[in-house]
Amino acid sequence: MKYLLAEKTIDEADIEDLIGWLRTNPWLTQGPLVRQFEEGWARWVGVKRAVFVNSGSSANLLMYAVLDVSKRLPNRKVIVPAVAWATTVAPAIQLGFEPIMCDSEPETFGMDMDELDKLCAQHKPGAVIAVHVLGTPVRLDRMAELKKKHGFFLMEDACAACGSTYEGKKVGNFGDLASFSFFYGHHLSTMEGGMIVTNDDQLADLMVQLRAHGWGKDLPPEKEAKLAAEQGLLESFNRPFTFYIPGYNVRATDLQARIGLSQLKKADHVVSRRAENHRQYLTRFKASQHYNVPENPKAVTSSISFCALASSVEHRIKVGAALKAAGIEHRPVGGGNMSRQPFWSNLYGKQVFPMADRVHDACFQIPNHPGLVAKDIDFISDVVLAVKP
């Protein structure tokens, strides 16, 4: 393929920096650089706290888990989006929540706010998780209204939306919790890695424990001492290996954090290039009557890939053939409609979500990364737009 969906974000300068650091024989597992990266990421997003974990999927898992162990949820019902990635939805099943699926809307391909309003009125969920599909923010003003109206905790899955903004504020600032991914080919990469951000100190401290076995020793000393005193643990020998909540081991490493700190220096450049490419795609595709594209006029979208909705299954097949012939990598949008994935349908049966079904059957994604320039975007657009239904 001449045009790849993703190119390496870890460049030669990052590798040289890492090699030089490794020659100092540094601490490699979770340590001081993890904390530095967390602090740097929190500043960049504009939130109080960040918790670094080993993947974006683990970040989603911990968002569910921390709401569970916090005992602050009024119930275990959670509204999940039909168009998502598997590990946006799977933790709800794994942790014994009652997931209720919401269809997508044609404007953003994200959660349909009118349907969400109806589902909240009917089920009164304790939580909602919303995905910014491939980087396009959901209608966050409407989401804020529904959050206030129905009183749910909001999780943002921003794994594909690093640096996207809504009314000038970065995604990740709108939920009680938000997740990001640093997988290969994403906006920024630590090989594997993910981050959860929050402005809630209690949730952040619980996630620090959940990330590492459920113990308290990664907390600041005064918080660990308070936790131990509350449990009547005054004897110091066993205290570092006391497990306060049922945790996991989803820690990231200082090696990953070193790469992350190097990547963070170019975050603004990467985001601006992706946003510029995305705007050019939008201009080209909106002029066509044969494709629908997600757009949020109040947002600046820094997409992980650009996506478009063909007019039919057959139309998408023709588009795929043209892209393959031109050497342009392409794929469906994420996992499409999660209700049509076996992990969901085998448990809950066949369900109908009209817009999500259209996305599943006729949507496709094409490359957007900083290595592409204007002529590349025009060429890729020309190939697709030449394909008529």
Structural class: alpha/beta
Helix content: 40-55%
Helix tally equals 14
Average pLDDT rating: 97
Question: Which band does the percent of strand residues land in?
Answer: 5-15%
Annotation, overall tally of beta strands:
12
- pLDDT < 50 runs, ≥5 residues: none
Gross morphology? globular
Major sheet details: 7 strands, mixed
Helix/strand order: HHEHEHEHEHEEEEEHHHHEEHHHEH
Q: What radius of gyration results from the CA coordinates?
A: 21 Å
* Strand order of the biggest β-sheet: 1-9-8-5-4-2-3
Distance between the termini: 25 Å
Write the layout of secondary structure elements.
Elements: H1 12-22, H2 32-45, E1 49-53, H3 56-69, E2 77-81, H4 86-94, E3 98-102, H5 113-123, E4 127-131, H6 140-150, E5 153-157, E6 165-166, E7 169-170, E8 177-181, E9 194-198, H7 201-211, H8 221-230, H9 254-264, H10 267-286, E10 299-300, E11 305-309, H11 313-325, H12 342-348, H13 354-362, E12 363-367, H14 374-385
Parallel strand pairs: 2-3, 2-4, 4-5, 5-8
Antiparallel strand pairs: 1-9, 6-7, 6-10, 8-9, 11-12
Helix pairs in contact: 1-9, 2-9, 3-4, 3-7, 5-6, 10-14
Protein architecture, described:
The chain has 389 residues and is of the alpha/beta class. The protein has 14 helices and twelve strands. The longest helix is centred in the last third of the chain and has 20 residues, at 267-286. The protein starts with 11 loop residues before the first helix and ends with a helix.
Task: Provide the descriptors you would attach to this structure in a database record.
single chain; 389 residues; alpha/beta; 7-stranded mixed beta sheet; 3-stranded antiparallel beta sheet; 14 helices
